[in-house]
Every structure is written in C-alpha cells, then in structure tokens.
Amino acid sequence: MSGTLRCFLAFDIENEDVLGRLVNLQQLLLKTGASMKIVHPENIHITMRFLGNVTYDFIKKISNKIQEIEFNSFHAEIEGVGVFPNIRRPRVVWVGINKGSEKLIRIFDQIEPHLQELGLRPDLKNFSPHLTIARVKSPKNKDRLIGFVKKNSGYNFGDIKITSLKLKKSDLSRTGPVYTTIKQFQPKIEV
What's the domain range around 70? Predict the structure, then answer.
C-alpha cells in the first residue's frame, strides 16, 4: 500500500546469551520433524501492539502519544514454552515471560487507550507477553511437537533487560519479514 507502513510496537531481546538459548530451542524444535517456519533470531521480540498498515501522519501522532507513556527499565525472566491457540491446534510456538510480565501488561494498558483515541480498533486478544519463535505450517508430526512443548514448558532461558520501546516497520519479503526501527522511546528511569 502506497503511503502506509506495516508497523508494530515492541521490545527487542538484546541479551545474546538468551538469544543463543532461544536459537538452540528452535533447532531442537526443527528436529521434531514438525512443519514450521522458525522466526529469524534478529526478529525475535516482545510485541506490545501490532498497528497494521498505518500512514506517516499516524506514525507522527502515535509517536507523540507514546512519549507520554511512563515506564522504567526493568528485568524480565524468559521462561516456558507453549503454543497458541491451544495444545490441540498449535499454530504458533512461543516462549513465555515470567518475572516482569505484569510490568509489560501495565505498559500495554497505557498504550491501548492512546491507540483507540487515534482511531485504531481495540486489541480484542487479551495481551499475553511472549516471544514468537516459530509458526506451525501443517499438522505434520504434531504429536512430536506437542510432546516437545510439554517437556520444555518450564525451561528457563534467562533474564533480559527491558529498555527502549520501539516503533518498528515490517517489510515482507520471500525470505521473511525485515524489521526496521523507526523510533525509540526511552524509559523514564534507567535501572
């Protein structure tokens, strides 16, 4: 669409050790033989809100609103493996956020009213802080995938620091999406 960008708000995962553990998990997922597309390591992030195709004017307006959001940097614990929408019909493989998830929810709760004020439809999915690490393409070897997920449901990947909230654009290509940061919003207090 000309004149619009496909955008979302997110926190990046900048801890290389945690990213390495996530990549190792992805490789083990592939060994289940399940039909899935792995998220490129540089694209793993915590999506705070998908915005869809938005105009440049909307980007300016949302940037002004997001600057009003108050949050401090904090640590979050990356833990657990699961699937959406449910274990019987896995479509997305995710890694959870334990400690720190309540702070992410509070940030989301500040973002959402601003977006609705600007005319964006409400996010009707209950916000659940997570990292998408793979998308399931077919039911091939689903039972092996489910067994792997259940076995690793409590795995701890380590601690990350949540710092700047980023407005990102997504350019779709044949090899997968390419994410580019348009704007960063810094925490009020750096811990």
Answer: 4-185
